[in-house]
Amino acid sequence: MAPVQRIDGKAFAARMTTRIADEVRSLFDEAGLKPGLAVVLVGHDPASQVYVGAKHKATIAAGMKSFEHRLPAETSEDVLLGLIAQLNADPNVHGILVQLPLPAHLDASAVIAAIDPSKNVDGFHVVNAGQLATGQDALVPCTPLGCLFLLQDHLGDLSGLHAVIVGRSNIVGKPMAQLLLGANCTVTIAHSGSRDLPALCRTADILIAAVGRPEMIRGDWIKPGATVIDVGINRIPDGDSTRLVGDVAFAEAGHAGAITPVPGGVGPMTIACLLQNTLTAFRRKLPAKA
Ligand SMILES: Nc1nc(=O)c2c([nH]1)NC[C@@H]1CN(c3ccc(C(=O)N[C@@H](CCC(=O)O)C(=O)O)cc3)C=[N+]21
């Protein structure tokens, strides 16, 4: 059998970012218009600091305005909601992202609900989720959108394929299911408690791993030739240091048709799709052409 193909999300994301930057410059620069993305980070979680820094760099590289708001860990919900109200009203801000997880004293669902759905570039608002579920134009959560782009690039038409999604979060599993249904897949949503999960996974033409458990999905859970998308980003100890692994035991997946590596697979696509959503939100605010 042909050797497994690596799906290069890093390269795909770089091409997407270049295309978005070209679009921003060629269509809007002359008119003095710029999409703007506001990112709010509460507290000092080291991983979150790294991600927020990466988002800032990508936003600038795409020719957009980046507004960073770093708030102390003890910020009250009132202060955070006040900032969100200000960003909702700011015409220079087209996208708003509040980095998750939030410190425990803050109610993430109340914060997400406060972000104007038309600026909610994470696609986490119930209005965004409802629009996606009912087939209306929506801002779609960045990680599953990135997975869909990689699948369509690799496989072309997805019609009739059986997709098994392991993971049922609002951020990945559920919106991923909606997107794949929209692309005419047959979709199964499974989770760590599903009965005979290995056998279920073996029925997948497309296997999406989004459980958040390092290397939980073993080689013998993968049907030969299947396309595997590994959403997991787990930092595990490695000697005196640490390393990143996905939710799939990558070294055992040599008989898959294709697989996304970790790092360099889905992660970079999440950031590229954030830029894409910011551009989409910006376009929708432009006055209709006369
Ligand atoms: N409101 C909100 N929206 C998010 O989209 C959001 C969030 N909160 N909280 C945290 C997670 C995580 N996340 C990642 C983005 C990029 C990489 C990424 O680019 N990873 C690289 C390298 C990572 C590394 O080296 O540490 C890769 O996989 O190749 C990873 C993870 C967005 N998140």
UniProtKB/TrEMBL annotation:
Keyword Transferase among UniProt keywords: no
InterPro entries: Aminoacid_DH-like_N_sf (IPR046346), NAD(P)-bd_dom_sf (IPR036291), THF_DH/CycHdrlase (IPR000672), THF_DH/CycHdrlase_cat_dom (IPR020630), THF_DH/CycHdrlase_CS (IPR020867), THF_DH/CycHdrlase_NAD-bd_dom (IPR020631)
PROSITE patterns cross-referenced by the UniProt entry: THF_DHG_CYH_2
Involved pathway(s): One-carbon metabolism; tetrahydrofolate interconversion
Entry's family note: Belongs to the tetrahydrofolate dehydrogenase/cyclohydrolase family.
Stated role: Catalyzes the oxidation of 5,10-methylenetetrahydrofolate to 5,10-methenyltetrahydrofolate and then the hydrolysis of 5,10-methenyltetrahydrofolate to 10-formyltetrahydrofolate.
Protein name (Swiss-Prot/TrEMBL): Bifunctional protein FolD
Annotated source species: Paragemmobacter amnigenus
Gene name, Swiss-Prot/TrEMBL: folD
